[in-house]
Write a structure and sequence with these properties.
The strands form 4 sheets. Strands 3-2-1-4-5-6 form a 6-stranded parallel beta sheet, sandwiched between helices. A 6-stranded mixed beta sheet has the order 11-10-9-12-15-16, with helices on both faces. The protein contains 18 helices and 16 strands. The protein has 3 domains: about 200 residues, NAD(P)-binding Rossmann-like Domain (Rossmann fold); about 80 residues, Orthogonal Bundle (N-(1-d-carboxylethyl)-l-norvaline Dehydrogenase, domain 2); about 170 residues, NAD(P)-binding Rossmann-like Domain (Rossmann fold, 3-Layer(aba) Sandwich). The chain is α/β, with parallel strands linked by helices. The chain is globular and about 75 Å long.
Length: about 475
Amino acid sequence: MNISVIGTGYVGLVAGACFADSGNDVICADIDEKKIQRLTRGEIPIYEPGLEELVKRNIKDGRLQFTTDITYAVKNSLVCFIAVGTPPGEDGSADLKYVLEAARDIGKAMDGYRIMAGKSTVPVGTADKVRAAIREELNKRSKNHEFDVVSNPEFLKEGAALDDFMKPDRVVIGADSSKAAEIMRELYAPFVRTGKPILIMDIRSAEMTKYAANALLATKISFINEIANLCEAAGADIDNVRRGIGTDSRIGFEFLFPGVGYGGSCFPKDVQAIIRTAGEHGYDMKVLKSVEEVNCRQKGVVVDKILKYFGARGKGQGAKDKPLEGNTIGIWGLSFKPRTDDMREAPSITIINRLLDLGARIKAHDPEAMDEARKVFGNRIEYIQDNYEVLKGADALAVITEWNEFRRPNFEKMRNLMKSPVTSHTCVAPRFVVAAYAKNTPHSSPSSRLGLLCSDALYAQLFMSLCIISSF
C-alpha cells in the first residue's frame, strides 16, 4: 500500500519505518529541510533502540523515502497519516495549529480519494476540524474529491516503540466509513497475526481512547507514589505493598513503580488536555487534577530529602537562601525514562533547577540524553561522560532515571570516590545516595539500611526505592 506520513517526529518516524518494514511504500514528509537531509542519509535525530537500523534498511530497499514536498507525498499515497506535534497551550489545551496546517496541505494536494489518518494525540472532535479544513481547500480549488478521515491513535512507549508498533496489544481505528475501516484493517493485518484485536469504533471514541489510556496510566503512577510516601511515614515497605496489590489480576504490576513522577511528551500534556476538554464540556475532572498535583509535588521529594539531610546534620554550608552552597550533588539519569534521550517534562529538570537555586553544584551523567540536557541546562551544570566520575568529590548522589547501567554498580568504587563514606560493622557504603525510583525501605536500624547497599543481591531493592542511605 502507498502511504505518506506528514511529520517526522517520534511518532511519524517510527510509524513510517514500521509500515515500510512490513512491505508498504512510505513517503515521510516534513517542512524541516535539514532534518529531511539527515534522515535521507539514514541519520536519526532521536534515540530509539533499533530505529536507525530499521530506517537504513528500508531506505536501502527502496520502501522508505523522505521529502519536504508534501504535495508529492500526498499525490503518491492512498493513506495520509498526520503525525505532527500538538504542544500544550498556556491553558493546558492541545494546540491543533500543526494538525490543521497538515490537513490544509492535504486538501491542496489531493487529486482523488484519500484517507486522512490522525496519529497525533488530539482532543475529541478534532477529526471534524480536519475534515472541514480539507473540504475548505477542495472548495477553493472547485474540486469534489471523495475522502475519509479516521482516528488511529498510537500507543508507543519510548524505548520500546518498535515492539509496540510491530506487536501491538490492540489497534484502535475510529472511522465513520466502512470503506476506510476496511483499508485500515488491511494495512494493520500484518501486525496482528497473533490474534490481537483491531478495534473499529466511532471517531470520537477513538480520540477519547488515547487520552483515557494515558490518563489512567498517569493515575497509577501518582497513586503508587502517594502510597509510597505513606509507607515511608507509617513504617511499611512499599515493595511488599506493591507486590501485594500487583499480583491482583484486576490491578497488575504495570506502572506501579514509585519514583520521582511521570514526565515525557505524553502523560503531562495529555492529562492537562483531558482536564481542559472536560472543562469545555462543563465537567470537573477532580481525580485527574489530583493526579497532576501529586505528580508536581513528587518531583520535589528528592530535593526535600537532600535538604533535610544536610540541614539536620549542619552539612549545608551556604546562607539561608542558598542552604546547599558548597555541596556537590551527583545526578545519575537525565532523560524522563530509560532507553530514550527525551528530556521533555523530565523530572530531572525540576529537581536540578531547584538544587541549583538552593546553591548546589551539579555533576550529571546520562547514557543518551547529555546532548538534549545541554539544550535545557546550558553550562549551569557539569556533564560527565562516565557515571563513576560523577561521584568524585560528591556529597550526595541522586539516581533519577533507572537505566540498566545503574542497577549493579561497583559499591567499593563508589565508596572510594564519594567525599565521605560511612561504615557500619563490615558494611561500607557511599555516604549519601538517593535512589529516586521504586521502593521505600521500611524503618530500620542504620546498619540494616547500609546493608542494602552492600549486597549485590539486594541492589535491585535499592533501585526500587525512594529512600536515603546516609550516615547516622
